[in-house]
């Protein structure tokens, strides 16, 4: 069974640009979560999508946004990039109605803002 | 808001020995889940073990076990017979059992080195 996949692996942008990160969940999973792993800050929850709807949002500015498509894949968009947005962005998926709703993580996208 | 604290930024252990990683958390909720995740240098985060707060029995998965002390809000991970492949960042995480709050709250991690 294929795991969570993310693309691209690496992304280099300059300040002020926009970045788009993509995530494909495990087949059968309806929920997608985005986390930011910045150096020194640990992992912080960004967004949760389930069945195409945004269900919960972390403490991030509105320039972090995303969506979930009918096939449950997801995009994370970061507008007006700032240097501190440089981080590893992890996507996770789960089947929301399962007993433990275990989240399975992808390998991440390393975003570097110059 | 819930917080998770891992007080050991780095730990090391000799191969075949036992090591314990510490985690404390703060919450006002009575029902929740606790997790230990492992992130090897290749970056893919994988679940090591989970514990439901309403269960008094400590979870065990092969060489990995936890010591869950609900009153003390402590959730340590014990790795027995450490192997070179156990070297990784270990993250303790909390998740509320209340519906609509599925986010994981992570500690800052403990880097485990396994010495041959």
Write up what this structure looks like.
The complex is a heterodimer of chains A (114) and B (116). Chain A has no helices and eleven strands. Chain A is mainly β and 114 residues long. Chain A is globular. Chain B is mainly beta and 116 residues long. Chain B has no helices and twelve strands. Chain B has strands at residues 3-5, 10-14, 19-21, 24-26, 32-39, 46-52, 60-61, 64-69, 74-79, 88-96, 105-106, 110-115. In chain B, strands 2, 5, 6, 10, 11 and 12 form a six-stranded mixed beta sheet that branches. Chain B starts with a strand and ends with a strand. Chains A and B meet through strand 4, strand 5, strand 9 and strand 10 of A and strand 6 and strand 11 of B.
Features:
heterodimer, A: 114 residues, mainly beta, seven-stranded mixed beta sheet, four-stranded antiparallel beta sheet, 11 strands, 53% strand, globular, B: 116 residues, six-stranded mixed beta sheet, 52% strand
Please outline what is shown here:
Chain A is an all-beta fold. Chain A is built from no helices and 11 strands. By secondary structure, chain B is mainly β.
List the SSEs and their pairings.
The complex is a heterodimer of chains A (114) and B (116).
Chain A: E1 5-7, E2 10-13, E3 19-24, E4 31-38, E5 42-50, E6 53-57, E7 64-68, E8 74-78, E9 87-94, E10 104-105, E11 109-113
Parallel strand pairs in A: 2-11
Antiparallel strand pairs in A: 1-3, 3-8, 4-5, 4-9, 5-6, 7-8, 9-10, 9-11
Chain B: E1 3-5, E2 10-14, E3 19-21, E4 24-26, E5 32-39, E6 46-52, E7 60-61, E8 64-69, E9 74-79, E10 88-96, E11 105-106, E12 110-115
Parallel strand pairs in B: 2-12
Antiparallel strand pairs in B: 1-4, 3-9, 5-6, 5-10, 7-8, 8-9, 10-11, 10-12
């Amino acid at each position: 069974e294929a795991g969570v996949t993310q693309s691209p692996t690496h992304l280099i942008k300059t300040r002020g640009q926009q970045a788009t990160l993509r995530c494909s969940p495990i087949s059968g999973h309806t929920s997608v979560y985005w986390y930011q792993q910045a150096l020194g800050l640990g992992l912080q929850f960004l967004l949760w999508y389930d069945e195409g709807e945004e269900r919960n949002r972390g403490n991030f500015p509105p320039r972090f946004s995303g969506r979930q498509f009918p096939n449950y894949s997801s995009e994370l968009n970061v507008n007006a990039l700032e240097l501190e947005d440089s981080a590893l962005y992890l996507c996770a998926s789960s089947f929301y109605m399962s007993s433990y709703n275990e989240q399975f993580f992808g390998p991440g996208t390393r975003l570097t803002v110059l | 808001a819930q917080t998770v604290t891992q007080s050991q930024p780095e730990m090391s252990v000799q191969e075949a020995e036992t090591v314990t990683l510490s985690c404390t958390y703060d919450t006002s909720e009575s029902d929740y889940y606790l997790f230990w995740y492992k992130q090897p240098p290749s970056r893919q985060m994988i679940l090591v073990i989970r514990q439901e707060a309403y269960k008094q029995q400590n979870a065990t998965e092969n060489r990995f076990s936890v010591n869950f002390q609900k009153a003390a809000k402590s959730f340590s991970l014990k790795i027995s017979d450490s192997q070179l492949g156990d070297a990784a960042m270990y993250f303790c995480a909390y998740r509320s059992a209340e519906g609509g709050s599925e986010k994981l709250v992570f500690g800052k991690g403990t880097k485990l080195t396994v010495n041959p």
